[in-house]
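Example 9 (inverse folding). The structure is encoded as follows.
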C-alpha cells in the first residue's frame, strides 16, 4: 500500500514538474515574441519574465532527480550487461545484487551529504525561525538571483531525490533476491493503453 502511494506520488510529481517547466518556457517564448510586436510591446515590456530561465532550471533539476529514481524502479536506465548475461545464473545474480547495493550505497551517501549541505546552507536557520527560536549565529543562507528563493529549498532536490533513488535500488534488489527478476522497460508499451490480442479485436467486430 505504501509503495503504491509512493509510486503515484512520484509519477504525479514528475508530471507536474514537466508540465510546469513546459508552461513556463511557452509563456517566456510568447512574451519574448510579443515584446517585438508594435502596439503590444509596450504592455509586454512591463511584464518582467527574467525569472523564467531560473525557474525552469530549478524545475528540471527536481524533475531529473526524481526521474532518476523513477528510472531505477521501472528499469529505464541504460546498462551494459553483455558480460553479466554471459555468466552462469549464480554468478550473474551475485553481480546484479552487488551492482544494486553499490547504487544504493552511492545514492544513500549523496543523500546524507546533500542533507548536511542543505541543513548548513539555510535549512537550520529556517527551522529555528519556524519554531520561534532564531539564532543570529546560525547561517541564514543565500537566495537565488532572480526569484530570491532560499537556495536550501532548491538544493533539497539532492537529498530527497537521492534518498528516494537509494530506496528504489534497495526495492529492486529485494525483488531480485526473492524472484530473480529485474524491472524491464518496454518501449512499445504505452501507459494507460491496454494491450489487446488479435482475437480480442476480432471478437469485438
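The amino acid assigned to each position is listed next.
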Amino acid at each position: 500500500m505504501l509503495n503504491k502511494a509512493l509510486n503515484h506520488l512520484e509519477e504525479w510529481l514528475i508530471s507536474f514538474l514537466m508540465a510546469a517547466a513546459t508552461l513556463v518556457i511557452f509563456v517566456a517564448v510568447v512574451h519574448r515574441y510579443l515584446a517585438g510586436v508594435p502596439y503590444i510591446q509596450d504592455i509586454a515590456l512591463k511584464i518582467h519574465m527574467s525569472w523564467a530561465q531560473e525557474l525552469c532550471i530549478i524545475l528540471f533539476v527536481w524533475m531529473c532527480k526524481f526521474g532518476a529514481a523513477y528510472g531505477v524502479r521501472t528499469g529505464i536506465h541504460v546498462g551494459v550487461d553483455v558480460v553479466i548475461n554471459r555468466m552462469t545464473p549464480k554468478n550473474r545474480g551475485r553481480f546484479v545484487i552487488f551492482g544494486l547495493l553499490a547504487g544504493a550505497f552511492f545514492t544513500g551517501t549523496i543523500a546524507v551529504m546533500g542533507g548536511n549541505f542543505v541543513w548548513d546552507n539555510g535549512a537550520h536557520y529556517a527551522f529555528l525561525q519556524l519554531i520561534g527560536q532564531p539564532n543570529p549565529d546560525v547561517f541564514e543562507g543565500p537566495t537565488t538571483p532572480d526569484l530570491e528563493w532560499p537556495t536550501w529549498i532548491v538544493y533539497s532536490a539532492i537529498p530527497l531525490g537521492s534518498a528516494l533513488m537509494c530506496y528504489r535500488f534497495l526495492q529492486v534488489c529485494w525483488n531480485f533476491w526473492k524472484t530473480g527478476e529485474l524491472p524491464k522497460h518496454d518501449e512499445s508499451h504505452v501507459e494507460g493503453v491496454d494491450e489487446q490480442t488479435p482475437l480480442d479485436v476480432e471478437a469485438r467486430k
